[in-house]
Amino acid sequence: MPTTPPLAALRSASSAVSRWPCAEWRGASASARCSGHRPAGSGRAVRRYRWPQRLRQEHLLRLLAGLDQPSRGELLAGSAALAEAREDTRLMFQDSRLLPWKRVIDNVGLGLRGDWRAKALQALRAVGLAERANEWPAALSGGQKQRVALARALIHEPRLLLLDEPLGALDALTRIEMQQLIEGLWREHGFTVLLVTHDVSEAVAVADRVILIEDGEIGLDLPVELPRPRSRGSARLAALEAEVLNRVLAQPELPPQPEPVSPLPTQLRWAL
């Protein structure tokens, strides 16, 4: 792992979920508890596991993006509060969230002022869609819509890119293409990526570290120290994937059960 200072850190950050009823889950209250850091320029995948249904993994991303506030703990960017670096953070959702009444290039530059069209076109060029700039979102495939959403994040030149399962709805080949695109942009621009995914193979293929969250806490922190580009059929990659899967699929040990007590007979026979 690189020894660069952390871009973002969570020090015992906790946030009670106020949008939904508080729930108990294997003895843990419905709160996001996490402690760790992400080195600048690193890629990390968070694999959701055994979180309460009403406490979703994207709650962690909402904390980092500033959409929710922690009830305790700290969110840091270097040594300063993460809130001070909010403009350097962008969140990409599961769906593209493109406005159907705006053309592609207008979706990329949404909310920007001044002469932004050149930057929007450059961002579209980076994701391979410059020629579709003046089309409507309805004319794009699912993968192309996600590319536009990625361009909308890139135009802000983020230092921290938060990805909330943006590839989950794509077919297998398109998903791999998007993984390679995101990895290429990460290598080119040097931003930090935090990817939430349910796909273990995706996590070990793209990330520098895989974080497994269990009961709202870090259950596994696995460095992926493999050279890039990575061969998806390699034995080393398969071994790392198996290590994560073994942890994910492990069943909790049941407490020892007492010996069954034989019931008393319902009828007693007496020998005379």
> What is the tally of helical segments?
7
Provide the residue-averaged pLDDT. 76
Distance between the termini: 84 Å
Shape: globular
Q: What is the helical fraction, as a range of percent? A: 25-40%
What does the largest sheet look like?
Answer: 6 strands, mixed
**What CATH architecture of the domain at 6-97 and 161-248 would you give?**
3-Layer(aba) Sandwich
Q: SSE order in H/E notation?
A: EEEEEHEEEHHHEHEHEEH
Q: What's the CATH class label of the domain at 6-97 and 161-248?
A: Alpha Beta
Measured by DSSP, the beta-strand proportion falls in 15-25%
CATH topology of the domain at 6-97 and 161-248: Rossmann fold
How many strand units?
Answer: 12
Would you tell me the structural class of the helices and strands?
A: alpha/beta
Q: What Rg, in angstroms, do the CA atoms define?
A: 23 Å
CATH superfamily of the domain at 6-97 and 161-248: P-loop containing nucleotide triphosphate hydrolases
List low-pLDDT spans: 1-6, 9-37, 46-55
Task: Give the spatial strand order of the biggest sheet.
Answer: 8-9-10-5-11-12
